[in-house]
Specification:
The protein has 367 residues and is an alpha+beta fold.
Length: 367
């Protein structure tokens, strides 16, 4: 009988699975503190300074003052005036993330990255022959600590939904396991806001219906939830019962690549050309590393009133250079019908509708 890891019993899933969700602790800020001893134990905020900048990451010392990721940098500075602001170094964070992934690959090939700092692992069968998923998670965390001098939190559960919740349960530097027979007792008292997809608006709507905990949600039937929330209501019905059939999907193809810039001061449309050219070069270089061909160009604009405008175009012939990408994006800009005085606070350039280079070459022979 297992006492250390997941008992391979079914919870409504197609087969017994053992899922680990690993989440690096305050990743960007922790890398900065690791690499600069003078930052350790101090409130570190990874963000560019400026009224339009947002926080990329905050150390736990900064979080004690209420600083959070995605918060406006000026607000973070008001909350924690003595914080040390560090401009982000994404190439360095990506390199560290790759080192973390190499540790994952020692244990399983079924790895689904969600971002640079978190991933799902299916360790139902693991390369090291460890008897339990909990043991795998412990060793992964130990290897990250010893080899990279960083900490990670992990959640172990029968599915992705529960594993992600579990990884946040004992942060930072924690491990939490939800055994199959513990699912119901764990879920019922949880606030409905812990369910993925239940944002503030949805949470308020549920509370108006007298639903504040997952246990309350379970009192509603499938037809009730479908009538209230459509297709997502069916998803809520399953998640409230700890059911999640989604599998860990390794090497998920990139659907789009984009880059955007928020201006220090609002610009007219004519004033965005240099920025669009710079973003186009950045996106083009990133797309070359992807190894596939993008067919569709997307231009995104955000007005000073926070309205978002997008324009897209799929050329008959795939783009061949960053210059062609920039030219296409600038042509899309001309399709934006606005008054001459309209100001913009953000512009973005993206590529989507990717195809394998080989597939694209074959199709072009018959065009």
């Amino acid at each position: 009988m297992m006492t250390d890891g997941l008992d391979p019993t079914s919870t409504g899933l197609p087969g017994p699975r053992k899922i680990v969700h690993v989440d690096m602790d305050a990743f960007y800020a922790s890398v900065e503190q690791r690499d600069d001893a003078s930052l350790r134990g101090k409130p570190v905020v990874v963000a560019w300074r400026g009224k339009r900048s947002v926080v990329c990451a905050a150390s736990y010392e900064a979080r004690r003052f209420g600083v959070r990721s995605a918060m406006a940098a000026v607000h973070a500075e008001r909350l924690c005036p003595h914080a040390i602001f560090i401009p982000p170094d994404f190439p360095r964070y990506k390199a560290v993330s790759q080192s973390v992934r190499e540790i994952f690959r020692r244990h399983t090939d079924l790895i689904e990255p969600l971002s640079l700092d978190e991933a799902y692992l299916d360790v139902t069968s693991n390369k090291m022959g460890l008897p339990t998923a909990t043991r795998v998670a412990r060793i992964i965390r130990q290897q990250i600590r010893e080899e990279l001098n960083l900490t990670a939190s992990a959640g172990v559960a029968p599915n992705k939904f529960l594993a992600k919740i579990a990884s946040d349960w004992r942060k930072p530097d924690g491990l939490f396991v939800i055994q199959p027979h513990e699912v119901e007792a764990f879920l019922l008292p949880l606030p409905v806001g812990r369910i993925p997809g239940v944002g503030k608006v949805m949470e308020d709507r549920l509370k108006q219906l007298g639903i504040s905990a997952v246990g309350d949600l379970r009192n509603l039937s499938q037809p009730d939830l479908h009538g209230l929330f459509g297709r997502y209501g069916m998803r809520l019905y399953e998640l409230a019962r700890g059911i999640d059939h989604s599998r860990v999907v390794p090497d998920r193809p990139t659907k789009s690549i984009s880059a955007e810039d928020t201006f220090e001061t609002d610009l007219t449309l004519d004033g965005t050309e240099d920025i669009i050219r710079r973003l186009a070069e950045k996106v083009w270089n990133a797309s070359r590393r992807d190894g596939r061909v993008a067919r569709t160009v997307v231009l995104k604009l955000k007005t000073s009133e926070f309205n978002i405008l997008t324009r897209s175009h799929t050329p008959a012939v795939p783009l061949a250079s960053a210059e062609e990408l920039a030219a296409t994006a600038l042509a899309l800009r001309n399709r934006v019908e606005i008054r001459a005085s309209q100001k913009f606070r953000l512009v973005g350039v993206g590529l989507s509708n990717f195809q394998d280079a080989e597939t694209q070459s074959r199709s072009s022979l018959f065009d």
